[in-house]
Amino acid sequence: MPAVREIVTAAFPTAEEADLVDALRADPEAWIDGLSVVVETADGTLTGHALFTRCHVDGSPALALAPVAVLPAFQRQGAGAAAIRAGLDTARSLGENLVLVFGHPEYYPEFGFAPASRWSVRASFEVPDEALMALTLAPGRPVPSGVIAYAAPFGV
Fold first, then answer.
1. Structurally, how many domains does the chain consist of?
2. How many Cβ atoms sit within 10 Å of the Cβ of residue 140?
3. Which has the closest alpha carbon to 7: 40, 43, 35, 54?
4. 124 in helix, strand or coil?
5. How far is CA 26 from the centre of its chain?
6. End-to-end CA distance of the chain
7. In terms of DSSP bridges, do strands 46-57 and 36-40 run parallel, antiparallel, or are they unpaired?
8. How far is it, in rounded angstroms, from Cα 118 to Cα 90?
């Protein structure tokens, strides 16, 4: 989707994240319809995007949230948060149980994310504990523990 690529390219210093989105879109094992979320202004201008794709924790399905992108002119106005919230709502409605994010530890807790180590979930690479976070979407359902297996386009 060209508009998503434009948003992601504008939001990051290189095209690496936009290329990642394209690769994830092309990967049938990663892509989940409805979990590439865009937000727009009242006049229809697309301003933000959040992508949730399939990953696994010790063989159990989970979601990886990455990347989240907002056009620079619309940053810090709630577009990213709106995309994340809409994606989390859709993930819940699809029966997903766990979302993982590697990101800013001062931002993602506002959506309910907490250090993934609380559930004994870890990455296969070195990462600060506070930067790898998890959110359970289905209270009462067991949360898998173990190492995250990201979709191949992530390269980890």
1. 1
2. 5
3. 40
4. coil
5. 17
6. 25
7. antiparallel
8. 24
Task: Note down the domain range covering 114.
Answer: 2-154
Point out which residues pair with 98 in neighbouring strands: 136
- pLDDT tens-digit map of 115-155: 999 999 999 999 999 999 999 999 899 999 999 999 999 99
Count Cβ atoms below 10 Å from residue 40 Cβ, excluding itself.
14
CA separation for the pair 110, 105 (Å, rounded): 10
- Tell me the C-alpha distance between 8 and 19, whole Å: 9
Question: Which CATH number is 64's domain given?
Answer: 3.40.630.30
Cβ neighbours of residue 107 under 8 Å, at least 6 residues apart? none
Which DSSP category does 13 fall into? S
Q: What is the pLDDT of residues 40-51, one digit of tens each?
A: 999 999 999 999
Q: Is the pLDDT of residue 1 over 80?
A: no
Half-sphere exposure of 111 (CA within 13 A, CB side): 27
Closest CA to 70 of 35, 37, 109: 37
% of the chain exceeding 70 in pLDDT:
100
